[in-house]
TrEMBL record:
It comes from Sesamum latifolium. Pfam families: RVT_3. Residues 410-532 form the RNase H type-1 domain. This is RNase H type-1 domain-containing protein. It comes from the Eukaryota.
Length: 557
């Protein structure tokens, strides 16, 4: 019993939620002898009871967890196959609403609409599921599986029955459809969020298929006759391969479309085109992203809905949830962060002291309330500051030479905000810090910083191939990209094309690896990238005005 009491005391001190022994009871099995019952009851300081007493009800936080984890999870499997009738969904949501607002058998007032409860927390709601939207998202997952895996048993069965001469994207309801097929096909509008990722470009029809990420429909805004050349995306590539035919694209498409097309990275390894989900970074379908897409579509159809994408509202609520204060104090954006945290803590301490006065008769003066809040927040801040961070890794802040026989190739990318272009800078050095080669290039197109970094990394590996080096280490300061290169995981749909090229080139070396360095240790490559407009690429010594940046790395040798 001492061990159990010790565990309860440790839990109470750590969580601030101590067990009220006076209001607790212990219930034993009929087979438990009376002397054992007496020993346990006296050891714990809890009275015995013959049966469970009436429970006073879950707190709001407990109800929320129970609804999300249990009640809303029960119909999940059925929702993945069938479209539940609207009446059934209303009954389930009504039952959940009654459970949320009621504390007993009596019917109580529902103070908020159900739509408000299903609004995400970042927008001021409770974050409960909209079951109708969730049902659609689950059915969209089945539709996506049939689209990506047409050779599956279910895919071949449905294709033979409902769309033998077309793809599922062109399928119709047909005659005498089954309830399952009718349900799955009802999620077809959601799959409008798919698009093609360009590989070899042979299968993507320019004027018909969705493939341009910068356009709302993912298709060219100006649609020409499908039979007029060019008809497939591969006809838009340059004859030497590996990039777009810029003059052809600028003469074929409107300026906006041309800019969006040129921002798409093109692979050089010739893998096949594939379909990706636009609404996730990885390009893989997720029920979560489909659910939010359905909610956004419903909001556009019904602007009075509580589900809104207001930037100011989202920023305000995110500010509350991201405040660095104890979770129980979190309950919008003009205060400094320190004042903001103190304000929320004072609000909580006023509530805490009021409860103390009501339950224990202890009265606190205003200055005592403020003093308690300051002390509480300072203690929490000190504890959080001293907590170990297990996600940090040792990253060098200065350039370090490679091992003997290796060549370290540093790369970086720079965006030019005035024109939207980007430049890449690459420098290769041996174990003595001597410059073996460098490369600079400026591309006149608008892309994201992550794609620019991946582009520079690919150019670094290509430089190693052209120079016939056997052992290389490519090093950059983009943590996300380096993580993708090292772990072969976490690819984004926009960078995976380039990363595939990098992995395809690596077997040409006896040894190849990737490492991360902070910006201070990558200053030479960064300067070359920033100066990409001022000098052309080269493979000998650096230009004179780059030597000072090169010498800055020498103390680390």
């Amino acid at each position: 019993m001492q061990c159990v009491n010790s565990i309860l005391q440790v839990f109470g001190k750590a969580s601030g939620q101590e067990v009220n022994l006076a209001k607790s009871v212990v219930v034993f099995s009929k087979n438990t002898p009376m002397h054992i019952r007496k020993d346990i009851s006296e050891g714990l300081g809890i009275r015995c009871a013959d049966k469970h007493e009436k429970y006073l009800g879950l707190p709001s936080a407990g109800k929320e967890i129970l609804i999300k984890v249990v009640l809303q999870a029960i119909p999940t499997y059925a929702m993945g196959v069938f479209r539940l009738p609207d009446g059934l969904i209303q009954d389930i949501e009504g039952m959940i609403a009654r459970f949320w607002w009621n504390s007993g058998d009596r019917h109580k007032i529902h103070w908020l609409k159900w739509n408000k409860l299903t609004t995400p927390k970042m927008l001021g709601g409770l974050g409960l599921r909209n079951l109708r939207a969730f049902n659609t998202a689950m059915l969209a997952k089945q539709f996506w599986s049939l689209l990506i895996y047409p050779e599956s048993l279910l895919g071949r069965l449905l294709k033979a029955r409902y769309y033998p001469d077309s793809s599922i994207l062109d399928a119709e309801l047909g005659s005498r459809p089954s309830f399952t097929w009718r349900s799955v096909l009802s999620a077809k509008p959601v799959i409008a969020g798919h698009r093609w990722r360009i590989g070899d470009g042979h299968t993507i029809r320019i004027w018909i298929d969705p493939w341009i990420p910068g356009n709302p429909s993912f298709r060219p805004s100006l649609r020409l006759e499908p039979l007029l050349p060019p008809t497939t995306v591969d006809q838009l590539f340059a004859s030497e391969g590996g990039d777009w035919n810029v003059p052809l694209i600028e003469s074929t498409f409107p300026p906006h479309d041309a800019q969006a097309i040129l921002s798409i990275p093109v692979g050089r390894t010739g893998f096949q085109d594939d379909i990706i989900w636009h609404h996730t970074k990885s390009g893989s379908f997720s029920v979560k992203s489909a659910y939010h897409l359905v909610c956004n579509i419903d909001h556009m159809a019904n602007p009075s809905s509580s589900y809104s994408n207001s930037t100011s509202s989202r920023a305000g609520w995110m500010g509350i949830w991201n405040a660095k204060i104890p979770n129980k104090i979190k309950a919008q954006d003009s205060l400094e962060s320190a004042d903001y945290n103190l304000f929320l803590t004072i609000c909580w301490s006023i509530w805490w002291c009021r409860n103390k006065e009501w339950s224990e008769g202890t009265c606190y003066k205003p200055d005592q309330v403020i003093s308690f809040a300051c002390s509480y927040l300072n203690s929490f801040t000190e504890i959080m500051a001293s907590a170990p961070n297990f996600n940090t890794t040792s990253v060098s802040s200065s350039w370090r030479p490679p091992e003997h026989g290796f060549v370290k190739i540093n790369y970086d990318a720079a965006l030019f905000l005035d024109t939207g272009d980007f430049g890449i800078g690459i420098i290769a050095r041996d174990h003595n810090g001597n410059c073996l080669a460098w490369h600079s290039q400026r591309l006149h197109r608008t892309i994201s910083p992550e794609i620019a970094e991946a582009w520079a990394a690919r150019a670094a590996v290509e430089l190693g191939c052209r120079s016939n080096w056997d052992k290389i280490v490519i090093e950059g300061d983009c943590a996300n990209l380096v993580k993708q290169l090292v772990t072969h995981e976490g690819y984004t749909s926009s960078t995976e094309v380039i990363i595939r090229d990098i992995f395809a080139l690596c077997p040409r070396f006896l040894s190849s690896s990737s490492s991360l360095v902070r910006r201070q240790g990558n200053c030479v490559a960064h300067f070359i990238a920033r100066s990409a407009i001022n000098f052309a690429e080269g493979h000998a010594n650096l230009p004179p005005h780059c030597n000072e940046h090169l010498l800055a790395d020498m103390p680390s040798l």
